[in-house]
Design a protein that fits this description.
The protein is of the alpha/beta class. The chain has a single domain, classed as Glycoside hydrolase/deacetylase (TIM Barrel, Alpha-Beta Barrel). Helix content is 42%, strand content 10%. The chain contains nine helices and six strands; from the N terminus they run αβαβααβαβαβαβαα. A four-stranded parallel β-sheet has the order 3-2-1-6. It has a two-stranded parallel sheet with strand order 4-5. Helix 5 packs parallel to helix 6 and helix 7 crosses helix 8. The mean pLDDT is 94. The structure holds zinc ion (ZN). The site of zinc ion has 5 residues, from loops.
Length: 228
Protein backbone atom coordinates (compact mmCIF):
# COMPACT_ATOMS: atom_id res chain seq x y z
CA UNK A 1 0.00 0.00 0.00
CA UNK A 2 1.58 3.26 -1.07
CA UNK A 3 1.44 6.09 1.46
CA UNK A 4 -0.83 9.06 0.99
CA UNK A 5 1.06 12.17 -0.11
CA UNK A 6 -0.13 13.71 3.14
CA UNK A 7 1.69 11.04 5.16
CA UNK A 8 5.09 12.15 3.86
CA UNK A 9 6.21 15.05 6.11
CA UNK A 10 8.24 16.88 3.45
CA UNK A 11 5.39 16.64 0.94
CA UNK A 12 2.92 17.78 3.58
CA UNK A 13 5.07 20.82 4.29
CA UNK A 14 5.39 21.59 0.57
CA UNK A 15 1.61 21.40 0.16
CA UNK A 16 0.77 23.40 3.27
CA UNK A 17 2.92 26.30 2.04
CA UNK A 18 0.92 26.41 -1.19
CA UNK A 19 -2.69 25.66 -0.40
CA UNK A 20 -5.10 25.02 2.46
CA UNK A 21 -4.44 21.71 4.22
CA UNK A 22 -5.96 22.30 7.64
CA UNK A 23 -7.18 25.13 9.86
CA UNK A 24 -5.44 26.26 13.04
CA UNK A 25 -8.19 26.38 15.65
CA UNK A 26 -8.82 25.79 19.33
CA UNK A 27 -12.29 24.48 18.56
CA UNK A 28 -12.98 20.77 18.46
CA UNK A 29 -14.21 20.91 14.90
CA UNK A 30 -13.33 19.09 11.68
CA UNK A 31 -14.49 19.47 8.09
CA UNK A 32 -15.76 16.35 6.34
CA UNK A 33 -15.24 16.60 2.59
CA UNK A 34 -16.51 14.18 -0.03
CA UNK A 35 -15.10 14.06 -3.55
CA UNK A 36 -16.05 12.94 -7.04
CA UNK A 37 -19.86 12.98 -6.77
CA UNK A 38 -22.71 13.51 -7.05
CA UNK A 39 -23.36 9.76 -7.07
CA UNK A 40 -26.89 8.38 -7.55
CA UNK A 41 -26.78 6.01 -4.56
CA UNK A 42 -23.90 6.99 -2.28
CA UNK A 43 -24.63 10.70 -2.08
CA UNK A 44 -28.31 10.35 -1.04
CA UNK A 45 -27.33 7.76 1.58
CA UNK A 46 -24.70 10.13 2.93
CA UNK A 47 -27.11 13.06 2.95
CA UNK A 48 -29.59 11.03 5.00
CA UNK A 49 -26.87 10.06 7.48
CA UNK A 50 -25.57 13.63 7.83
CA UNK A 51 -29.09 15.00 8.32
CA UNK A 52 -29.94 12.33 10.91
CA UNK A 53 -26.86 13.32 12.94
CA UNK A 54 -27.17 17.07 12.32
CA UNK A 55 -23.77 17.30 10.60
CA UNK A 56 -22.58 19.50 7.78
CA UNK A 57 -20.05 18.61 5.11
CA UNK A 58 -18.47 19.91 1.93
CA UNK A 59 -18.88 18.13 -1.41
CA UNK A 60 -16.24 18.61 -4.13
CA UNK A 61 -18.24 17.74 -7.20
CA UNK A 62 -17.15 16.89 -10.72
CA UNK A 63 -18.83 18.68 -13.62
CA UNK A 64 -19.45 15.56 -15.68
CA UNK A 65 -21.38 14.08 -12.76
CA UNK A 66 -23.30 17.27 -12.04
CA UNK A 67 -24.62 17.26 -15.62
CA UNK A 68 -26.14 13.85 -14.95
CA UNK A 69 -27.22 14.24 -11.31
CA UNK A 70 -28.27 17.86 -10.96
CA UNK A 71 -31.13 16.92 -8.66
CA UNK A 72 -28.74 15.30 -6.17
CA UNK A 73 -26.54 18.39 -6.16
CA UNK A 74 -29.63 20.55 -5.63
CA UNK A 75 -30.63 18.36 -2.68
CA UNK A 76 -27.08 18.56 -1.23
CA UNK A 77 -27.11 22.34 -1.42
CA UNK A 78 -30.65 22.59 -0.02
CA UNK A 79 -29.56 20.54 3.02
CA UNK A 80 -27.04 23.27 3.90
CA UNK A 81 -23.84 21.57 2.78
CA UNK A 82 -21.10 23.47 0.99
CA UNK A 83 -20.28 22.71 -2.64
CA UNK A 84 -16.72 22.90 -3.97
CA UNK A 85 -15.28 22.77 -7.49
CA UNK A 86 -13.40 19.56 -8.38
CA UNK A 87 -13.03 20.25 -12.12
CA UNK A 88 -15.13 19.15 -15.06
CA UNK A 89 -13.49 15.83 -15.98
CA UNK A 90 -11.34 14.94 -12.94
CA UNK A 91 -8.05 15.21 -14.81
CA UNK A 92 -4.65 16.21 -13.33
CA UNK A 93 -4.65 19.97 -13.84
CA UNK A 94 -0.90 20.32 -13.31
CA UNK A 95 -0.40 18.43 -16.59
CA UNK A 96 -2.62 20.79 -18.59
CA UNK A 97 -1.95 24.17 -20.23
CA UNK A 98 -3.49 27.20 -18.53
CA UNK A 99 -6.37 27.45 -20.99
CA UNK A 100 -7.51 23.89 -20.23
CA UNK A 101 -7.10 24.40 -16.47
CA UNK A 102 -9.33 27.46 -16.82
CA UNK A 103 -11.87 25.48 -18.82
CA UNK A 104 -12.05 22.73 -16.18
CA UNK A 105 -12.65 25.35 -13.48
CA UNK A 106 -15.16 27.43 -15.41
CA UNK A 107 -17.34 24.59 -16.67
CA UNK A 108 -17.69 22.94 -13.25
CA UNK A 109 -18.16 26.30 -11.52
CA UNK A 110 -20.91 27.34 -13.90
CA UNK A 111 -22.75 24.03 -13.55
CA UNK A 112 -22.70 24.38 -9.76
CA UNK A 113 -23.85 27.98 -9.95
CA UNK A 114 -26.69 27.05 -12.33
CA UNK A 115 -27.98 24.43 -9.87
CA UNK A 116 -27.33 26.14 -6.52
CA UNK A 117 -27.33 29.82 -7.42
CA UNK A 118 -23.95 30.13 -5.73
CA UNK A 119 -20.43 30.11 -7.01
CA UNK A 120 -18.15 27.72 -5.11
CA UNK A 121 -15.51 29.30 -2.86
CA UNK A 122 -13.10 26.36 -2.77
CA UNK A 123 -11.43 24.23 -5.42
CA UNK A 124 -9.77 20.86 -4.82
CA UNK A 125 -7.28 19.80 -7.51
CA UNK A 126 -8.14 16.28 -8.73
CA UNK A 127 -5.83 13.59 -7.27
CA UNK A 128 -3.92 16.30 -5.42
CA UNK A 129 -1.81 17.01 -8.50
CA UNK A 130 -0.64 20.59 -8.22
CA UNK A 131 2.07 22.98 -9.35
CA UNK A 132 2.54 26.70 -8.82
CA UNK A 133 1.34 27.54 -12.32
CA UNK A 134 -2.03 25.82 -12.03
CA UNK A 135 -2.54 27.14 -8.50
CA UNK A 136 -2.09 30.65 -9.90
CA UNK A 137 -4.81 29.98 -12.47
CA UNK A 138 -7.11 28.60 -9.76
CA UNK A 139 -6.63 31.75 -7.65
CA UNK A 140 -7.03 34.05 -10.66
CA UNK A 141 -10.44 32.47 -11.18
CA UNK A 142 -11.41 33.40 -7.64
CA UNK A 143 -11.06 30.00 -5.97
CA UNK A 144 -9.25 29.08 -2.78
CA UNK A 145 -7.35 25.85 -3.49
CA UNK A 146 -7.63 23.19 -0.79
CA UNK A 147 -6.25 19.70 -0.22
CA UNK A 148 -6.87 18.48 3.33
CA UNK A 149 -4.98 16.92 6.24
CA UNK A 150 -6.42 13.41 6.53
CA UNK A 151 -6.53 11.22 3.45
CA UNK A 152 -7.33 7.60 4.41
CA UNK A 153 -7.34 6.51 0.75
CA UNK A 154 -10.83 5.16 1.17
CA UNK A 155 -11.35 5.00 -2.60
CA UNK A 156 -8.83 2.13 -2.75
CA UNK A 157 -11.14 0.15 -0.45
CA UNK A 158 -8.52 -1.01 2.06
CA UNK A 159 -11.19 -2.21 4.53
CA UNK A 160 -13.40 -0.34 6.99
CA UNK A 161 -11.02 -0.92 9.92
CA UNK A 162 -8.01 0.36 7.98
CA UNK A 163 -9.90 3.50 6.97
CA UNK A 164 -10.97 4.04 10.58
CA UNK A 165 -7.42 3.55 11.88
CA UNK A 166 -6.08 6.13 9.42
CA UNK A 167 -8.81 8.60 10.33
CA UNK A 168 -8.22 8.23 14.08
CA UNK A 169 -4.43 8.47 13.77
CA UNK A 170 -4.42 11.95 12.27
CA UNK A 171 -7.46 13.38 14.00
CA UNK A 172 -6.98 16.84 15.49
CA UNK A 173 -9.02 20.04 15.76
CA UNK A 174 -9.13 21.87 12.42
CA UNK A 175 -8.54 18.74 10.35
CA UNK A 176 -9.90 18.58 6.81
CA UNK A 177 -10.88 14.99 6.03
CA UNK A 178 -10.84 13.72 2.43
CA UNK A 179 -13.35 10.97 1.61
CA UNK A 180 -15.17 9.86 -1.53
CA UNK A 181 -18.85 9.46 -2.32
CA UNK A 182 -18.20 9.22 -6.07
CA UNK A 183 -15.57 7.72 -8.33
CA UNK A 184 -14.28 7.60 -11.88
CA UNK A 185 -16.47 4.57 -12.51
CA UNK A 186 -20.06 5.09 -11.47
CA UNK A 187 -20.19 1.42 -10.38
CA UNK A 188 -17.31 1.79 -7.91
CA UNK A 189 -18.30 0.68 -4.43
CA UNK A 190 -18.12 3.23 -1.64
CA UNK A 191 -19.61 0.97 1.02
CA UNK A 192 -16.38 0.97 3.05
CA UNK A 193 -16.20 4.77 2.98
CA UNK A 194 -19.81 5.12 4.08
CA UNK A 195 -19.55 2.57 6.89
CA UNK A 196 -16.29 4.07 8.14
CA UNK A 197 -17.62 7.62 8.22
CA UNK A 198 -20.80 6.50 9.96
CA UNK A 199 -18.73 4.96 12.77
CA UNK A 200 -16.14 7.75 12.86
CA UNK A 201 -18.69 10.55 13.15
CA UNK A 202 -20.33 8.73 16.08
CA UNK A 203 -16.95 8.51 17.80
CA UNK A 204 -16.22 12.19 17.23
CA UNK A 205 -19.67 13.30 18.35
CA UNK A 206 -19.07 11.38 21.61
CA UNK A 207 -15.80 13.32 22.00
CA UNK A 208 -17.61 16.64 21.57
CA UNK A 209 -16.52 17.42 18.01
CA UNK A 210 -18.60 19.55 15.68
CA UNK A 211 -18.76 19.25 11.89
CA UNK A 212 -18.99 22.60 10.10
CA UNK A 213 -18.65 23.15 6.38
CA UNK A 214 -15.21 24.16 5.15
CA UNK A 215 -16.21 27.84 5.24
CA UNK A 216 -17.58 27.24 8.73
CA UNK A 217 -14.28 25.70 9.82
CA UNK A 218 -12.36 28.66 8.37
CA UNK A 219 -14.54 30.97 10.46
CA UNK A 220 -13.30 29.13 13.59
CA UNK A 221 -9.64 29.76 12.73
CA UNK A 222 -7.49 31.16 15.51
CA UNK A 223 -6.75 34.75 14.64
CA UNK A 224 -2.97 34.85 14.61
CA UNK A 225 -2.82 38.44 13.40
CA UNK A 226 -4.16 40.08 16.57
CA UNK A 227 -1.68 40.18 19.43
CA UNK A 228 -3.26 38.69 22.56
ZN1 LIG B 1 -11.24 13.34 -6.88
Amino acid sequence: MSPSLLDVPSVREYLSRRLLCQVATEHKAVALTFDDGPHPRHTPWLLDMLTAKGLQATFFVVGRRVRRYRDILARTHAAGHEIGNHGDHHVPLSALPDALVARELKVCGKLVQDVTGERPRFMRPPMGWINDRMLKVVREHGYEPVIGSIHPQDSRQPGVEVILRRLRRRLEPGAIIILHDGGWRIGASRQQSLRAIDTFTDELLAQGYTFPTLSGLMALATNTKDPA
